[in-house]
Q: What sequence folds into this?
């Protein structure tokens, strides 16, 4: 288990309550705010999309990410580091290359956080 996975475990408690369920206190807002702040940059949002589009258990090599941007490799690495620190992705070095994947359940937790509960009797 990596250091990033251990950090994410501690953030889950604040993410279980949905945004519209009740007003958030400071502690409940901290975890999701960190994730949304990381995703608030267009480059990081695109990187997250490229990684997440590989599906559950899918991973992508940094060598596939870097050419998609008109940015230097160190800049891409910095953006990936911020996504890791926010608990959204993890990585593993294999030889020269680093492979990235979305941490299990992250997208579902963010979606659940933003989903408003359906009113009784409301339906499609």
A:
């Amino acid at each position: 288990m990596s250091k990033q996975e251990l950090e994410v475990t501690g953030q889950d408690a604040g993410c279980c309550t949905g945004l519209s369920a009740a007003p958030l206190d400071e502690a409940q807002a901290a975890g999701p705010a960190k994730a949304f702040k990381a995703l608030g940059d267009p480059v990081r949002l695109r990187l997250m999309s490229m990684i997440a589009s590989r599906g559950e258990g899918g991973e992508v090599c940094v060598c596939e990410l870097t050419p998609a941007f008109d940015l230097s490799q160190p800049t891409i690495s910095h953006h990936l580091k911020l996504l890791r620190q926010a608990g959204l992705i993890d990585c593993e070095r294999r030889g020269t290359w680093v492979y990235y994947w979305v941490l299990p359940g992250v997208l579902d937790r963010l979606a659940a956080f933003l989903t408003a509960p359906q009113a009784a009797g409301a339906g499609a």
In short: Residues 1-15 have pLDDT under 50 and may be disordered.
